[in-house]
């Protein structure tokens, strides 16, 4: 059994298979140090925590993860808070940095006797129509190599070999460019408010998300095509303070910017998630824009379904779990995509941004329909308990 990629998806699949005594190998393009320091997600849904608990993989997050229940919207007409942990189904997020989760999952996988090859990018997945699929790789010494197994779990992200190896015409690809770009920032500074902050501002969106007591993630809506380094740290802090309305609601804690990533908000979903003996999970199956923080959560959900399906097929000879795998995942993926799209609409004036770089400054001219409709969404969210319950359920749910 071959797993491509040691992100949350691949490592959860690997842990489930090892717990069932199945021999497997993970082939990972990056080094161990790289995967253990790659800062990305932080907000884990209750379902994700339940999955990790069920398989004894949640010790670390229970030790140092923190519960999070509130978000704050800062808009043209003031600010309001939603205590989403007590709305809807009354469930909180757990804040636990993805690189720590990956470190925990890797440690457990190795303890359980799992094999992994770092610095070994998969080049192609072959023979997926038959019972012995194989994977060609470039070994750490640069030499090509080939692995063969019963199944291949493609957990190697959007640009990995699994997606590339799907035979032409066997899957449909749904791609959507939301027309928005973010600059993702990681600051060595404590969180500035005790809530997730979403600021809707004429200069563009800004976001604030706690990671640890010493590190905070910020997002700035960013002109498409502009390099991440185009602005100095000082200019970024000035812009964050402006959009977060720090003058009215309190200053931001400044600190060195540890990471800058330009993120074009896109979604890219494949259907189905299986071709013969190749099965996709996580970002390899569906990439959602990070606006609703669903990617790592979907990856864990899919990995559990895939792990269980593989165990049933390999150990018990029952293929039904794998047969149902794609449809079960896709129903979650499309619901997450719908909510993610709604969040993007809530937080940005999409029609204005679509005019592209060089277009006349939108705020001098007449406002488009999107602006009114976005304001109506925010007002409904602020005033309607039914809308707040819907939001809370979808915000923490997958
Ligand atoms: P990963 O984590 O990308 O892991 C894939 C692994 O595959 C390796 N790989 C290969 N290995 C072998 N051969 C090849 N050819 C390979 N090509 C790639 C890579 O090195 C890597 O180790 O995918 P996975 O496991 O599917 O997990 C998905 C999540 O990482 C992703 O969806 C989230 O990080 C998205 N996301 C968030 N999700 C949440 O649920 N909550 C959040 O708060 C959240 N915040 C974020 C995010 C993503 C962000 N970025 C990357 C835009 C914040 C940011 C900034």
UniProtKB/TrEMBL annotation:
Domain FAD-binding: 2-340
GO MF annotation list: 4-hydroxybenzoate 3-monooxygenase activity; FAD binding
Enzyme Commission identifier(s): 1.14.13.2
Pfam families: FAD_binding_3
This protein's record includes keyword Oxidoreductase: yes
Gene3D superfamilies reported for this sequence: D-Amino Acid Oxidase, subunit A, domain 2, FAD/NAD(P)-binding domain
Keywords of the record: Monooxygenase, Oxidoreductase, Plasmid
Stretches of the chain forming a coiled coil according to its record: none
Presence of the UniProt keyword Ribonucleoprotein in the record: no
Alphabetical list of NCBIfam families matching this protein: PRK08243.1 (NF006091)
PANTHER family the record matches: 3-(3-HYDROXY-PHENYL)PROPIONATE/3-HYDROXYCINNAMIC ACID HYDROXYLASE (PTHR43476), FAD-DEPENDENT MONOOXYGENASE (PTHR43476:SF5)
Name recorded for this polypeptide: 4-hydroxybenzoate 3-monooxygenase
